[in-house]
Amino acid sequence: MFEMKTWATGAAMLACTGALVACGSGNTAPGAAAGTGTPSTATTVTGTTAGTVAGTAPATPALTSPPKARPTPAGAATPVLSGTREVTIVRVQASEGGLALDGRLVEADDDSGRQLFVPTPLGGDTYLIKAYSRVNNHPAADEPVCWQVHNPNNTQSLTIEGALCDLNNPAQRFTIVPNGEESYAISNNSAYLQHFPQQRPDPRRTRRCTPAKHVPAHRQRPRAPPRWRLTTPNQWQPLFSAQKIRRG
């Protein structure tokens, strides 16, 4: 599960919890210029009542059956899933940081990578998740990169990497459904997004392999960053959720 957070408008744009700070163009997605593929802000169309012709009596309205209620598209009542909001995605239980698309999907506690996401509806509960950089007057910051499932074709779990957006690519079509209050579950083809922290080494094996002398810090092997993976439903535990996008 993950938490999505909304961005505030005005001067205090796109502030989020922890060290996950990014600036943008307010609570709407980047401007929908031609060729950018970015969503535009939705507008409300209001209707008007036709008046009567002068000198004539208003016609008596015919008795008609009430119009059938149209089904509400998934995410329509949720601004964070409307495709017009930039959001951050963090773990519900995370104390700081959030998701960033930096080549692949990672958890970051700084400003690295693309940390602004726009879940763009494709129909039903299916979304294309676009990733944007902070506004830094660089043209590349306005061009989105989309989440895409990467299959290593071995025993390892699926991972998520960045790719050119293609709404017809099944690897980029994600299902986002509510999973608790203001939280969401993200999946692709029944594989759910879950955080896998770096495994701790076996203490017994560590004692056997660690040399007696002290190893300087600059020569120690760095730990691999935590990975975000897609797992099968029976391996998924509801420990994380797509947190609501909340106003700053």
Could you give a quick summary of the protein structure above?
With 248 residues, this protein is mainly β. The protein has one helix at 203-209; strands spanning 3-5, 88-90, 98-102, 104-108, 116-123, 126-132, 145-150, 158-163, 173-178, 184-188, 191-196, 227-231.
Overall description:
This protein has 248 residues and is an all-beta fold. The chain has a single domain (1-33, 73-201, 224-248), classed as Trefoil (Acidic Fibroblast Growth Factor, subunit A) (Trefoil), CATH 2.80.10.50. Helices cover 3% and strands 26% of the residues. It has one helix and twelve strands, in the order βββββββββββαβ. The protein has one helix spanning 203-209; strands spanning 3-5, 88-90, 98-102, 104-108, 116-123, 126-132, 145-150, 158-163, 173-178, 184-188, 191-196, 227-231. A seven-stranded antiparallel β-barrel has the order 6-7-8-12-11-10-9. A two-stranded antiparallel ribbon has the order 1-2. It has a two-stranded antiparallel sheet with strand order 3-4. A hairpin with a 5-residue loop joins β9 (173-178) and β10. The two termini are 21 Å apart.
Q: How many extended strands?
A: 12
How are the strands of the biggest sheet laid out side by side? 6-7-8-12-11-10-9
Number of helices: 1
How many structural units, i.e. domains?
1
Largest sheet: 7 strands, antiparallel, barrel
List the helices and strands and how they pair.
Elements lengths: L2 E3 L82 E3 L7 E5 L1 E5 L7 E8 L2 E7 L12 E6 L7 E6 L9 E6 L5 E5 L2 E6 L6 H7 L17 E5 L17
Antiparallel strand pairs: 1-2, 3-4, 5-6, 6-7, 6-9, 7-8, 8-12, 9-10, 10-11, 11-12
Keywords: Signal
Protein name: Ricin B lectin domain-containing protein
